[in-house]
Design a protein that fits this description.
Blueprint: E1 2-6, H1 10-22, E2 26-30, H2 33-43, E3 47-52, H3 61-70, E4 78-83, H4 88-97, E5 101-104, H5 109-120
Parallel strand pairs: 1-2, 1-3, 3-4, 4-5
Helix pairs in contact: 1-5, 2-3
Length: about 120
Amino acid sequence: MTILSVDDSTTIRRIVKRSCEELGHSVLEAADGAAAIATLEEKSGEVSLIILDWNMPGMTGLEVLKKVKSDPKTKHIVVMMLTSEADMNFVKEALAAGAQNYLTKPFDQKMLALKIQESMTMIPA
């Protein structure tokens, strides 16, 4: 399955990519929300999971999430937030907007892998 990693941090994208590849998944990357939307316009049929940061320049992760969930071509894609926003209000807002999973930074590799695997079980057949 293909996962889209969206984060303005190259380091976080590298960590996510490594974890996804170790689990046998291919990874596309986007450094911001606009790039994520552009990638989805081209490859929405390939992407099964989006791992999405909240705080990015230009378009926030929440804005990306809302756009993804409002588009009939992408609304089926499972979204996992991976962000430093640990406040419960952020978690509730993301879940209400359609995110299916949420992991806060900092995180360890084991927890990331577990959350990715958990998110993959939510993908519609």
